[in-house]
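Why do we care about 3D structure at all? Because function follows from shape, and shape follows, mostly, from sequence. That is the central idea of this module. The next example makes it concrete: a single protein chain, its amino acid sequence, and then its structure expressed as tokens.
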Amino acid sequence: MVLAIAVLAITGCGKAERWVATQTGGGYTTCIDGINYIQFTSGATVKIDRITKLPQECK
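And the structure:
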């Protein structure tokens, strides 16, 4: 039972974010460990600050 729950949790990672990206046509921004990431249907990338050219921080 525990193994089944673990498998479902791992395979479900990012599915909601990818669905939102598909529906909106753009990326879905999420904050992980103080850095913003953009989830697209084809993958994810770090969100870069336009002024500093560094990864955009979040809380």
